[in-house]
Amino acid sequence: MSTDKQKTYLFDNPRNVRRVVLGLVGACVILVGLDLVLHRHVSHPWEEMFGFYAVYGFVACVLLVLLAKEMRKVLIRPEDYYDEPSSADNPPSGEDPRD
């Protein structure tokens, strides 16, 4: 018997991934379709546009991704940021660093 069996997860099977994607696309199509028949009480005139919330959500998502890419440039740390400090940074063992 082999003890190297790897556990398989739900999304390891491409068929399951395809099902989830198709389910999400179907939900989006249904929601945009409902936009045609449901009456909305809007506060602003641009909310009356067909598919406004779908476009608004897509644009907001794209802007979040672009903002995150720019923030990464500011927040990035060197590869060895969390490594142990070098011996030059540490005081000799006989000295107390709190003095």
List the main descriptive attributes of the protein structure presented here:
99 residues; mainly alpha; flat
What's the short version?
This protein is mostly helical and 99 residues long. The protein has two helices and no strands.
Can you describe what's shown?
- With 99 residues, the chain is mostly helical.
- The chain has a domain at 11-75.
- 48% of the residues lie in helices and 0% in strands.
- It has two helices and no strands.
- The chain has helices spanning 14-37, 52-75.
- It is flat.
- The termini are far apart.
Secondary structure elements and pairings:
Layout: H1 14-37, H2 52-75
Low-confidence stretches: none
User: N- to C-terminal separation?
Assistant: 61 Å
Fraction of residues in helix? 40-55%
> Helix- and strand-based class?
mainly alpha
The rough form would be described as flat
Q: What is the number of strand segments?
A: 0
